[in-house]
Design brief:
globular, mainly alpha, two-stranded antiparallel ribbon, 15 helices, single chain, 2 strands
Amino acid sequence: MRYLYDRGLPPDASTLSTLGFCALVACSSLTGAGGNGGLTGSVNSTAKTFPDRARASTTGLVISGFGLSAFFFSSISHLFFAGNTSAFLLVLALGTSFPFIMGFFLVRPIPLPPQEGYDVVEAEEDDPDAMTSALDHHNHNSSHTHLLDHDFVEGRHPHYIHHAEANEVGDHLYSNVRDEAVELSPPPRPQGDLPPEYAPRARSLSRGAAMVLDMSPNVHGKKLWRSADFWLLFSILSMLSGTGLMYINNVGSMSQALYAHDNPEYDEVKASGWQAAQVSAISLMNFSGRIFIGLVSDYAKNRYGMPRSYSLVLVAFFFFVSQVAAANVNDIAHLWIASALLGLAHGSVFSLFPTVCLEWFGMPHFSENWGYLSMSPMAAGNLFSVIFGRNLDAHDAAPPHHARSAADIVSAPQCLQGLACYVDTIYLTIAATFVSLLLSIWAGYRDRQKIAASYRTKVSRREVIWEDDEERR
């Protein structure tokens, strides 16, 4: 890209050639692929290295650099390469590639101790429906049975047994169930002492079935694409991240529209300063949001036994508030409030979702599953951006309120009606984030129901095992 920039246009050409345009598209695609690959690799290595009780915090801390990178490189550009775009592109190329190259040789997952890790158990060549039958044998009359009934995917892949922590599930969620069965439930047996009908042999485990056996889920491939949980997370992430991408990509136009509105003395230098202020606010709060949501979700799970999926509601609420604020800001001096809230929400969503993806679908195929899930921003992100552009273009031809137009001194075409230039698009994203908020509440409720159903199944299983032992005596 730096070469194309330095080369510029031929003397007899006024537009970029088709070949040059295709080269820019290819370079942009490689940039996106490299950034996404680095994100997935860093999250994967961190998740495999740190225990579950600190996984969201450490993951958020590691990937917080993605949120701070825009502020870091924009500061370098302003301090050392002001006005020198070519040199700045070279710094970007070297500064983003060398850390990945070093990480390839230096970064290795550190195996967790047995009580915190995952044991690989090779699947046997028996009927993969055996575990489903065993799990459903004692709870087929339960109203929660459908939450645990999932098909198992055929294929040769080991599954991971997770050594669950004692405080992984909060006592307050299941106090009623425990009070009914505590007298009949003997101490839980080690996994190796389970009867044959409960021995883990399935090649692919859903989250509900895995929790019954204190195992990590292993959902991947066709089973993932058929999973309602996957499409639920896909929809939430698409609308939330799409809102964030639309705002980040167009906040420059938003700040220009607000600054030029009712301002006959338009100054491009000051307008650029306001744009830079929005970028800095988004970047710093993006960095903070990635750390914040990790700490909050880990604390809520370790202290109160709340699943990390509950934090989806908080993230969706951040997005909703940020868009409501953006729809009510008609002064450029106050736009930083909406930008800061949006940065906090956008950083939180990309810090929390990898952890939820790991919890719901398991570690063995985490990189694959997160790769599929991270494609969701393409849908709503492109849609919202196109709608924003059309909305802005529709207001370009409208005359300003003052007799003297700022367009006389503005080099590039732009809308001069302020908030009216783009507020209709903000109304759309407000609706999208509100729908995401409702879906996040539903996702947390589904997760709670699955955990409660798995606990009931484990209590029922322990009762039957206790009865069998009494009969043998």
